[in-house]
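User: Teach me something about this protein's shape.
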Amino acid sequence: MKFLSIQDSYQIVIILLNISEVNVSDEKICVTEIEIVSSCPVTEQEYNEAARRKHCSSMKSTCTNQVEQLEYHCLPNAWGDKLYEMCSTDKVIIGNSCAEYNERGQRIQPNYERKCNGVNFGVKCPFKYFANKSYLYPGCLTLSHETTSKSPGKENSTNSHPVPIDDNDLPFFVVYPFATLLIGLVLVAIIYCIWKR
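Assistant: First, the predicted structure itself:
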């Protein structure tokens, strides 16, 4: 019994690899001037004041081949226990998810674990929005551990290198592509075995 041709199997593998590639090699996001802060702006006026203070609009991206304007962002980390403000190229957030700053990857990304469209959320976010507009969704900017103590000297300190984090939890954008690739390889092996019979 012939299940799929070899050509069909190769096409499946290529599609799976392309899916993995899309998730791994997301567009280059330039993040700089990273600081830990005690709160983020939750109104347009507060956002504009913070953006003027940080001077992001006067900076240009040097992380990509294209010259892009940097914009002010203020976001929680993936665990929701710290808030960071930074200058960054903008990132589209999809999936009715809050935006987060990934400390290890030094990138802005959706937090798929923290949906911002639930009944108890307050101002709900749309399916797709830009991360610099996170101030419109204040529920995304609350700390999950309000009693988290700050280390002396850490608040408002500028970091130009990755912030060390616990290795126990791998970020979603790392696990998903490799899981997809592994599943794809297992499927190809099964299809190959069936085809050989």
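Now, about its shape. Residues 18-26, 146-170 have pLDDT under 50 and may be disordered. The CA atoms of residues 121 and 139 lie 6 Å apart. If you'd like, I can walk through any region in more detail.
User: That's plenty for now, thanks!
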